[in-house]
Amino acid sequence: MIPRVEQAGCFQSNPPFGREWKNEKRVVEDEAKRGFAGRFGAGLPAASDGQMLFLMTAISKMKEPRDGGSRIAIIHNGSPLFTGDAGSGPSDIRKYILESDLLEAIIALPNDIFYNTGIATYIWVLSNKKAGTRREGKVQLINANGLYEKRRKALGNKRNDIPESAIAEIHVTLNVFNNFSIPIPLKEVQRNIGNYLDDKCSRIDTIIDKQRELIAKLKVYKQSIITETVTKGLKLDVKLKDSGIEFIGEIPFTWKVCRLRNIGVPQNGISKGGEFFGYGYPFVSYGDVYQNYTLPIHVDGLIDTTDNERKNYSVEEGDIFFTRTSETVEEVGFSSVCEKTIPNAAFAGFIIRVRPFDDTLYTGYSKYYFRSSHHRAYLVKEMNLVTRASLGQDLLKSMPVLLPPMEEQKEIAKFLDKKCSAIDNAIKTKEKIIDKLIAYKKSLIYEVVTGKKEVI
Q1: Is there a single domain that holds both residue 173 and residue 270?
Q2: Model's pTM, two decimal places?
Q3: How many CB atoms within 10 Å of residue 186?
């Protein structure tokens, strides 16, 4: 928690994302009962994510405006922005912040700027000094998502840096809000522009929403095909038997069932200080596993390792990797297989490697098997969520593995390669359509509101 201070004029905070507060539940709820005499008068967030507790603690420590007021800058993921239905704790907190006119700006940051997660993050800027200024009653939204430069070599999942020039641009954007002037056309022209853009943008948004719905359906379809195929096989008229595993059900009669401990040995990855990254030998990062069914042949990361470390944390053909720990449960338990040995490579400490004892498990089959939805659900349900979402070796060892005959594993892999490739291509096509529509919408708005395109 933020240290207990009486008041301060400036706060900066980067609370952990997705950390539960159930262990502090009694203390937090007692504090909430104090209402606005305490820190949590506006409401309580879900027990699964304590980010907003940090935010409200900072707000409670703001100086009164008559004493100079305060400003807060706090980094959140997307959860505090979107979670919670109307009337819920998170919704009530957002309502309180907006109705109290405390929110000055939200800055969307680039992805992949943190070592162990690539999720979207935002800076919330709050101030109780807006009254009587041009910011009163307004919230500034700054999209700095594209203001980054690629790192020469990745540092874990950190692939991007925010350069000084980008920081300066964000700073100017914040400050220019107080000084810019807006050309204001006649009210009749404003109405015409508003009506025109409402109509045009609504049509564009409808098309974009439909494309996104289709993408979501394609992703669900892809996942269902994978899960169905790796648990039921390709033959429709095959004799079935009970797998003995409730969430899997019946499986083909010729398939075997074992646990992952019978397939291979799990091992956590290397852990070294930041000074060892950015040079040296290939480094398989959290993002390399999370984002890919198959590890890239050429990875971006580099790490300075010894001969012994490269031996202990090697990345060889047939290895299966799982994301082990993160701020959020949604990013843990994803798998990626190594289809070609990466010479001299080592893998990250936030990853678990399972190296098969033998060739019982075909790599092309395991690529899809461990990405099936029921295994993800099994891992998420059972994993440790005390301070961070964490996948332990004992849980991983207990994961059930279905073993079709080798030829059938190869047939399944070939079938899914073809099917998933076609679905992925369809998704990419629709994403390109969305990008073009968004660009067209932005261009249309700019042309109309600047008078370059006349609206009658």
Answers
A1: no
A2: 0.64
A3: 8
